[in-house]
Amino acid sequence: MKFRLMVVDDDKALRRILANIIENNNLGEIVDEASDGEEAEGKIIALKPDIVLMDLLLPGKDGIEVIHNIKKRGIKTYFIMISQVEAEDLVTQAYKSGIEFFIHKPINTIETIKVISKVEEIIKLKTTFQMVRDTVISIEKPDSEIYVNRNTSRIDFLLADLGILGEAGSEDIRITIENYDSLKDNINNLQDLYEFLHNYYISKGKKKSSDSKAIEMRIRRAITKALQNIASMGTENYDSEQFLRYAPILFDFKEIKKEMDYVRGKSKKGGKINIKKFIEGSILLCKE
Questions:
Q1: Maximum CA pair distance of the chain?
Q2: Tens digit of pLDDT for each residue in 217-273?
Q3: What are the backbone dihedrals phi and psi of residue 159, each rounded to the nearest 5 degrees, phi first?
Q4: Phi, psi for 119 (deg, rounded to 5)
Q5: d(Cα 253, Cα 234) in Å, to the nearest integer?
Q6: pLDDT by residue (tens digit) across 96-136?
Q7: Residue 16 near residue 42, CB atoms below 8 Å
Q8: Looking at 16-136, which runs of residues are DSSP E strands?
Q9: What is the fold, at CATH topology level, of the domain defined by 4-117?
């Protein structure tokens, strides 16, 4: 997926610096530039770029007003604000208007690459979520020769919705959920779960590491990725259906908040996962 980006700033030299960072690091294609709010708004409406890097303080309309007007039109452009302004109320107002991240001037190349890459990751994630929602069959059709296991469909949908369907640990999580009814009376702790999975892979002759430690690490990595994806979703839209549905059921609220602060660059440390809570929450969601 090649991203289309636009740079808006009244400083021509800064626009060139940002364009060079984007082009030299294969972050996408620069479709246009603008030097003031009025010009920017017209071009964004016409071109509908994927991402716009926009200065907060622009001649004419400021960046916040432009973003507000674009969002009202339902245009799904993602905004990264760039500015020297550090006043907390203005930064808060910028986030409320719909920006994804805030880059402070003077421009730092590494930070800029990291932020743009993170927004592109969010876009890819949302695109994947939508594709899954559009294609997953969640009901059986009696008059069809093809039958879909409803529980398995729900599990795959959940894993895809969390952005971890392709993770190695997703199979461990799926098998745990599928076998929950027979497991619940015999498993008292996570070590029992890892031992069950160990024996399961041996009995099925699966070519997959059945070492308990390897199983734990696979599950841990998959759940950590889910935490990162949900936190990114929350920073983008705190009221999104997926964030409100998954965050409180699968993770501890304080850990989600820590991860969101990390994503926004406000903290050097992200949130922690609780494997037991995630597994139990996933089972609950798949049994609904």
A1: 70
A2: 999 999 999 999 999 888 877 777 788 888 888 999 889 989 988 888 888 889 999
A3: -60, -40
A4: -65, -40
A5: 12
A6: 777 878 888 888 899 899 889 888 887 877 776 666 555 54
A7: no
A8: 29-34, 51-55, 78-83, 99-104
A9: Rossmann fold (3.40.50)
- CATH 3.40.50.2300 domain span(s) along the chain: 4-117
Name the DSSP class of 265.
T
- Which residue from 173, 148, 164, 183 is spatially nearest to 282, judged by alpha carbons? 173
Task: State the Cα–Cα distance between residues 66 and 240, nearest whole angstrom.
Answer: 22
What counts of helices (H) and strands (E) characterise the chain? 13, 5
Tokens representing 46 are: 């016409």
CA distances from 22 to 63, 166, 196, 272 (A): 20, 28, 48, 32
Coil, helix or strand at residue 29 = strand
Instruction: Report whether 3 contacts 27 (CB < 8 A).
Output: yes
**Range name among 30-39, 84-93, 142-151, 254-263 with the lowest pLDDT average:** 142-151
CA distance 238 to 240: 6
Question: Look-up: residue for tokens 């007003």?
Answer: 65
The helix (run of H) or strand (run of E) holding residue 140 is none
Contacts of 44 (CB under 8 A, 6+ apart): 6, 52, 66, 70, 75, 77
Q: Which of 81, 84, 83 is nearest to 95 (CA)?
A: 81
Side chain identity at residue 278, one-letter code: F
